[in-house]
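Structure tokens please, single chain.
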Amino acid sequence: MSGTNNPYGTSMGGHMTGSVQYGGGAPASSPTPAPASAEASHIKDTTTAAFSKDVMEESRRQPVLVDFWAPWCGPCKQLTPVLEKVVNEAGGRVKLVKLNIDDHPSIPGQLGIQSIPAIVAFQDGRPVDGFMGAVPESQIREFIDKIAGPALDDPAAEIEAALAEAKQLLADGDHQGAAQLFGFVMQVDPENPAGIAGIADCMIALGEYQRASDLLASVPEDLLADAAVQAVARKLAQYEEARALGDPAALERELAANPDNHDARMKLAKIFNAQGRRDDAADQLLTVMRKDRAYEDDGARKQLVEFFESWGFKDPATVTARRKLSSILFS
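Here you go.
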């Protein structure tokens, strides 16, 4: 698919560039109507006005293939039934949206489409890959596997493997790579709590707090008790609290002038945690404990335990801080 003959070709993870705007338009017609069955939910026609909802928004949930066609196009008539067949057999891994370029010329014009049939794949609201011409069925299957991942022989095993790799990528700081794998899990199993929690964790790490909040607000009630979902919800609450605590440089100046300002030190610990400076956050709380265990009813220890729960008990910062905590508690 991708290659020198494909103007949309990119390496995996690359993105096409382009700016698409939306306006009014007449309803589209299709050279071959989608079958009137449950499978038809994977295929639809769109218009200029509906393109944003049908393609851009939908591609944030799963990959969307856009078929740019015209009634007079002979190769389009060859490609469409094969393309629909493969999309339906993909079982929801991708959706197919068709746009008649005669009725709706503005979007293909903005994308630089000069020949049809042209198939463009959208992910996360952006065009990422594509091909032109009436290609064989085998190439369509390869293209869908490339965009959406291969069909699963053992979905449960694939999900577990993807989650394990995603968690490692997240721990290594590869938030984009982790998000892609967590997103794959959610495509296969939309109510997988580890996938939901993982996506939210990536959003938090990337500073997308509102998106993380919106995602967690949409979690079905029966999943809210899941440990992974609760942990990321606690983490988000800590980050949101830290954002309202003020300027860390000002707090550090206050502590330089008055090292016993425990309130400033507690605030600084929360801000360090939000910045990913876990060791520094723990050290601030441990300092409060050494100076005044009774401050805010042992508040520094309680806050540190909350950090442990959100970091995970195997996190290096947790392991180090727990050792220091033990030396204070049992000295």
